[in-house]
Amino acid sequence: MRKTIFITFLFFNAMLYAQQTASSIQSGSYIPGIMGVRDYTAPEFSGILIFDSNVFLTSNKFLDAKGNEVSQVNIPGVGEIPLNVDISGYLNSLMINYASPELSFLGGMQYLFMIAPVYSSVNVRLFTGQLNNNEYKVDGGASGMGDVTVSPLLLSKAFKNFDLTTGYLFTAPTGRFKTGAEDNVGVGYWSHMFQFAGYYYLNEKQTAFFAMPTYEFHSDIKDTDVRPGSRLILEYGVSHFLNERLELVVQGGHAWQVSRDTGMDVTWDNSVKDRLSTFGVGAGYWFAKNEFYANFKWSTSYANREHFGVNVLQLEFLYIPKVFN
Question: How far apart are alpha carbons 317 and 52 in whole angstroms?
Fold first, then answer.
């Protein structure tokens, strides 16, 4: 569920800077603000959970290293020309989750497993404004099965007023990727993430306060000597149930690149590190208690550096099949 923004990065770079072997715009695989506030709570049952996440993204601007909107680009032999960006994307992630019973040999912790294949589609329109009395534009897009995310080891422990969940995830470069191609749907490298989520509850879990840091690092990009820099992500939020079924959510997140891009093929200023901040609100409802849940969320980005400004609408469904539980 974390790929569409990066696909736009690759496509944007392929259109404007095709002479490079890799892009300076490397967002990583984990995007803050997509997951729900209570997604990492200790499950109150064991068995299979199925999430279907539908994410719709739009962007009309790119922010440079100082946080200023890029309104012009420099074309060799031509000079500075105006630039307008119109990007829209959709992704669907079908996540299959398993939660074990409380395991006595692990002190009552539960083991969690997750696998999430992703389908994504993105459309890009780049307008260069008037150039030699002509308005130039580029239309393009890409769609297909993207990279798959797997969590082979998550452990969760419930206490009276708080939960703790920690573990490891990776994103495998299974999506189509070729350096310089215009139809990539994968990022072309492995990403590894370590997470630690904490929850504090009030009113018998009617209200939940959530915070989760994530550390992410990467392999080299396929067929290049470029390794994207590591990232530190912090997410937080509040969830409150107005009654047994209706939930309201406020959440935010930040992603900071904390180490430089490295490798012999790095041709850009690798002292520039990207950052992304998000804020979102949403509502959820249990249509069938402990069996079928849906939520709707809107979020936007702010205070970005070397990143697209993004608006997101998200619709997610949770189904807990009784036959497997």
Answer: 5
Residues 12, 124: contact at Cβ < 8 Å?
yes
Which three-class secondary structure state does DSSP give residue 5? helix
d(Cα 93, Cα 148) in Å, to the nearest integer? 9
Contact 274, 257 (CB under 8 A): yes
Q: Which residue has the tokens 């849940």?
A: 293
Helix (H) or strand (E) segment spanning residue 10: helix 4-16
DSSP conformational letter for 323: G
Distances, alpha carbon 293 to alpha carbons 45, 96, 201, 245, 316, in Å: 15, 15, 20, 9, 8
250 vs 26, more confident: 250
- How far separated are the first and last CA of the chain, in Å rounded? 25
Q: Is the pLDDT at 308 greater than 60, yes or no?
A: yes
In terms of pLDDT, which residue wins out, 61 or 129?
Answer: 61
Give the span between the Cα atoms of 290 and 309, in whole angstroms.
36
Give the model's pLDDT for residue 214: 97
Question: Would you put residue 187 in left (φ > 0), alpha (ψ -120 to 50) or beta?
Answer: alpha
DSSP-derived 3-state class of residue 105: helix
Reduced to 3 states (helix: H, G, I; strand: E, B; else coil), residue 17 is coil
Q: What is the dihedral of CA 300, 27, 63, 75, to 10 degrees?
A: -140
